[in-house]
Amino acid sequence: MIASISHGEEISATVRIDSLFWDCRVEGNRATIKYFEKVTILKPAGAEFGVVTTWSSPLVNLNSFSARLLDAEGKQVYKREKKDMLKICGFGQGFEVYSDECRYYLDIEYPKYPYSVESTKEKELKSLYLLASVDLDYKIPIRTAVIRLSHPLNQPIRYRLYQVAGDPEVEDKGERRTLTWRFADLAPVKEIFYCPPENRMGRRLALGAEKFTLEQYDFDGLTWKNVGLWKRKLGADPDSIEGQRPASPVTPADARRVADSLYRAVTKNTRYVAAYVGIGGWQPHPLAHIKQRQYGDCKDLTALLVSGLRSNGITAFPYLLYTNDEGSTDTSFVDFRFNHVITMAIIGTDTLWYDPTCSHCPPGEIREDDEGAFTVVATDTGGVLVRTPLSRPQANRIVRVSEVTADSLGRMALKVRAVLSGHIASGLRAGIEHKNRKELDQYIADWLVGSRAQLKVTNYSLADVDDITRPVQIDYTVSCAQPLDWINRTRYFLPFFLTSRNAYKEVETDKRETDVWLGYPWEVYDSVIVSGSLLSASGSVSTPVDTVLSYPWVRVAAHYATGDSVVTASLTQTYTADVVPLSELDDFKSYISRRRWVVDQPIKFVAKTK
After folding, report:
1. Which of helix, strand or coil describes residue 222?
2. Which residue of 82, 185, 299, 541 is surrounded by the most CB atoms within 10 Å?
């Protein structure tokens, strides 16, 4: 997210943060953090920001909490304490079936506007591993914000500001150093479509302790190498027996078959869910535990797969990353900010990647949000920065052949075959999983024709959905509610009607401050074949000129041909890169316009002269 002034002007009329204060004191392996926040709700539309939330866990104590409701004159209406909050424990989020965190909620309302909500709380971190970052990425404006960090001089804390400028005031007194950051008039933020992963982490102060202990696991020296070593130590299986390494499979082909088979076994036999207790959010469970219960999170499934690969003589390591749908790893600032773990295997001269949380990914292919991610491979000798590879456009492909039969009145019947591969196929497989027939029919109809009201899917069939090593094939028929437009004795047909004409319409190009992130490389090939009595009833057929659009990150080619009984059109769109640099934004704007022009070019069927 990045700041947007126009959005801020709108939000500022309903709610604002008058004051935000975060005060952290580091002592040994612990830290005490005091928070203060004053929010003023100006209109009913801002009332949702009067809800106060917080959390605690066995490793993070909520020592105290209080909140006050103040009227427009600043007089206290009432006060609430920790005991007045709704407390919910044990429920995880998303794929988590259990978490030992407790969440607290307090909804403070008042019928007269404006009013303010002041809240204070104190937390104690039982390990400096948990000292991660201070969030300044709010959807409402902040008038003033102060961050204060106090630590012993012999216990340095690294820091880095993102998406906001400001040097700290530094005060050394005795054996302690105090750093203070002050901010004023921070604009609210909003989502920027197609924002690169490195800009999704938001406005924040990142922190990292040089030394800490998490239960019995000590860390000393904030380097990527040490991060990898510590993660390996944390993930060491208590039941593993060190000994002679087993022999590798005879050939790389044999090793690949073994690796693929192990990956299939893990994804088939182990469910991707999590139950977090203690440090279970960061440490894999013992292998025996995972095998017995047949479930686990990303760390567990990767531990299971890495163990299986190594026991078969295949070099393999866990790979720590931050998925690109939520953010990225800053390779120049060492920390422990990861949200996912996958598997890297080395077979011969090839590096293979497996994400055992993805039951829809073929062996050797990772999830789309794993692609192009910079982070750490936890090798036997320490952490190594690596970037996961981007797939080729041809690996993520839609090949769509549409047979259009049109009669002399311009009425159409469509028969289409679409073949999906790579991430596109995996996405469809994931989308239709666990749907009943009615839900499936609606999902497929939306996927095939979208919101085009004049088109209706009348029948469809799916092939190779269950075989993740093969493309998904969809055969379907489509009816059209309206005949082709008839203007001045000419029928107009848009051949690429199944291709969106408004690709990337959500991209904000005015005053944009970030690159445009296109995601994984992909390709769509559309072939359209038109036949029927419309051709024999036409005196002439006029097709658009062949067109090629070429940029460093995309190539579009349209081709047309006419014959005695058919007219054909093809459109190939190949996105070769994941990012459009900000310096090429004008070219991107030109591309959007030119591509729309290509898609909007009609084939003209001119009636015979009577």
Report:
1. coil
2. 299
